[in-house]
Amino acid sequence: EPAALGRIRRLALPFELAFALLAGLALALFVLILVMAYLPGRYVTFNAEGGWLTFDPSTAPPDGVVVQSLPLVTQLAGLMCGSLIYGALIFALWSLRGLFSCYRKGEVFGTHPIRLMRRAGVLLVLFAAMPGLLQPALRALGSPDRNWFHSETLPILLTGAGLLVFANIIALGTELQRENQEFV
What number is the average pLDDT over the span 21-29? Predict the structure, then answer.
């Protein structure tokens, strides 16, 4: 095994574990938000600036609207949108875990890691773009949230797009390597 591949294999394990942990934490946060949204109190509120999660309801924004007071159709649409947004994040992180799992096993330039990298890139782009794309529909259904652009939107969008570019570069390199082997 080349030394570079050995280093990649050793370095991949911490990333594989970290992305698995992050995916689990994102799932746990989404479940926590859903549970706290329907507990009595002002744990999850929405106003024009966005959604607020707090463990101390007295710190919730005074103009915040609790989920239970929104029309049922708005609650259902919000649940669907939240599921799409958090689902994209969770599956992007899980795809990155799978990518580093491939690296740990020594599979760097195969079709499977390239597919996982592309999937993670697309899902990160969707995670970043969906709040803005879904905002008009949520507004039309009565959501008080008007904050579609978050501080992390641009870096996540660029990271996802970067993964797509890197996946295409690796795919091109793999194709060129295969063509060169055919000529030898």
Answer: 98
Task: Report whether pLDDT(4) > 80.
Answer: yes
Question: What CA–CA distance (Å, rounded) separates 108 from 18?
Answer: 19
Tokens coding 23:
């995916």
Cβ-Cβ contacts under 8 Å for 83 (sequence gap 6 or more): 30
Residue matched to tokens 């690296």: 103
90 or 149: which leads in pLDDT: 90
DSSP H or E run through 45: strand 44-47
Predicted TM-score of the model (pTM): 0.90
How far is it, in rounded angstroms, from Cα 169 to Cα 123?
Answer: 19
DSSP symbol at 108: -
CA pair distance 147, 155, nearest whole angstrom: 17
pLDDT attached to residue 184:
63
Encoded amino acid at 84, one letter: L
DSSP-assigned letter for residue 146: -
| Strand ordering across the sheet containing 65-66 | 50-53, 44-47, 65-66
Neighbours of 44 (CB within 10 A): 24
Predicted pLDDT of residue 24: 98
Task: Name 112's Cβ contacts closer than 8 Å, sequence gap at least 6.
Answer: 102
